[in-house]
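Rotation project, supervised by the postdoc (A.L.). Task for the rotation student: set up a whole-complex structure prediction and record inputs and outputs verbatim in this book. Inputs entered:
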Amino acid sequence: MPQTVERPARLVESERTQRAPAARTARARTRVLMKGNEAIAEAAIQAGCDAYFGYPITPQAELLEWMARRMPEEGRAFVQAESEIAAIAMGLGAAATGARVMVSSSGPGISLMAEGMSYLAGSEVPLVLVNIMRGGPGLGSIGPAQGDYFQATRGHGHGDYRVPVLAPSSIEEAVALVADAFEIAERYRTPVILLADGLIGQAMEPVRPSFRALPRTTTDWTVGGAAGRPPRTVRSLHLEPEELEVHNQHLQEKYREIERTETRWAGEALDDAEVAVVAYGTAARVARTAIERVRADGLAAGLFRPISLWPFPATALRARAPRLRAILVVELSAGQMIDDVRLAVEGRVPVFFHGRTGGMVPSPGAVAGELARAWALTEPRPAPDEVGQASRTVGRAGARATPAGVSPGSWGAAASPDATQHDVDEAVWRERHAPMKDATR
Amino acid sequence: MTSAAAVPRLLFERPTCLIDRATHYCPGCGHGIVHRLIAELVDELALADRTIAVAPVGCAVLAYDYLAFDWVEAPHGRAPAVATGIRRVRPEAFVLTYQGDGDLAAIGTAEIVHAAARGERITAVFVNNGVYGMTGGQMAPTTLLGQHTTSTPTGRDPVLAGFPLPITEMLALVPGSDYVARGSLVDPGAIGKLKAMLRRAFEVQLGGGRFSLVEVLATCPVGWGMTPQEAVDHLSVVAETYPLGVIVDRTKGIGRGGTPGPSREA
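Outputs recorded:
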């Protein structure tokens, strides 16, 4: 069983904190100020990470730097690779021997790792890949973003596979999810992505330094020299179509099992919420502030925060949909997770969107405004026994009014239960062109 | 061979770690000979129990069907990076990459150069047959000038397709390369010399040395449009572009035989 371990003294003796060593010990037992990238790295070390491979890229470079100092201290493997392509391949080699491996990067480097991730998935080799997301596409920017959601949740590389994706919304949660990521990776023999945006990587926050050490499990598939057993091969090649289909069916069964057992989300103020924000990572934190503000004005808003992005907590969200008059998806992108939200609620509730891109972060004020707009553009939900009957009338709600003060980086659209795509398009058009009405609530 | 001493009349036998199975290789292909040489050496140096080999992409990806030790299959060209990962967590293992010329000299150029630059204690067996065999005989970086391939149908023209890449000589320049040599399958004598080169490369790793590589000039009769005999004879022409011999040897102090010595990394 996993156990909680006290943060080692070594951590407080790091370069950054050495300047004020006195009276550190007592405080270290409570909370310590850590940068996200460094906290993730140390969490991996404490979880028993045997090898780290990386390549410098902003905004994850401190993760590599922390590993460069700490892994040799622990007598473990660290290599600064010649490219992200090589880094993930090194990870494949080390992990194939049963070593616990972390690799990290950001957007452009993550793209180069798509090759290795596909091989890891195909040959069922566990590994944790950290993506500290930056603005894109292309070289983009070094600001925080969530534009790699599609890439992460749709498998990342070529072929028919999925990768579990965990998304922390605080540094402390990132620390916890690192150990969880290793656990999931090893339990299911799959690569796992820890998906955080540049703000999580770069910010400093107080962290309760209770890192989790993971036990070692025995394996019957790793390579290490065929002494006293038949030789083994870690491979993804299956030239016979019948054989590959059987392998792929095995992978898919594994993914169904992961969907059943590893779906994670958190709800805040959802019980009485009429409007729910669906957001992860930094966007969820902005949303939390916005929800506090609108609640002070009497608008019952809540937060549905997916923690596993794949598997997406679709069932939980769908179950809540009939009680909501609207959902507002907030992302640091032009709208990616919103696809999964819409697939989850299947038109049971109008879905609005607010996003910023390029390294810009939505402001709590803008999100509060969007919440008010979503509330104003929708009808109250009927009592539960009337839900089935009333869904048709709710369908037109999206066309009633137009927002006040929509921010330049915002895209809004209302989806309607039972509506055809034409109805939705018409509702969106009318929303955008109708005269402004009261949306000030 | 030890068994030859035990049974004096036995002059030739299948190495223990060479699986008794017909290969998928074409008639006249060089891979079978290289597989056998590796198998003989792994047996002679008693390495089978601690060998982790890295398979390439290309015809030899199925090497794990013929050589009975642990294998990891690498993405195309990434074998030296995969081997690096293995080496760094398995200091006691004997780590081998088996790569073709498209794999090592084109798509995997960065990985092989930087494995050598880091002085990784791994051994690369580089089988150079001058074409991409598995995909139908297209031009490789090592294709000779004027050579007809399916992607240089009128012969390799340096204006259009550049020059043959002497990657082994390039790798010999790197200080992390302890032993770099080139042999050939042109005749039994050359094969004997090649085996000695491979043995030395293995010894360098076992003795704690840095990066070692042996290039093998090998045949691809189908890719070359030749009979097996024509292809073997053609290897002497190939050797005019890629001269045979030890290209660099920085192994002073690393003993012969399979005895592990102190690691130079330590």
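Student's summary: Residues 241-261 of chain A form the longest helix (21 residues).
Supervisor addendum: The interface with chain B takes residues 50-51, 53, 77, 79, 81-83, 85-87, 89-97, 99, 101, 115-116, 119, 123, 223-228, 231-237 of chain A (CB under 8 Å).
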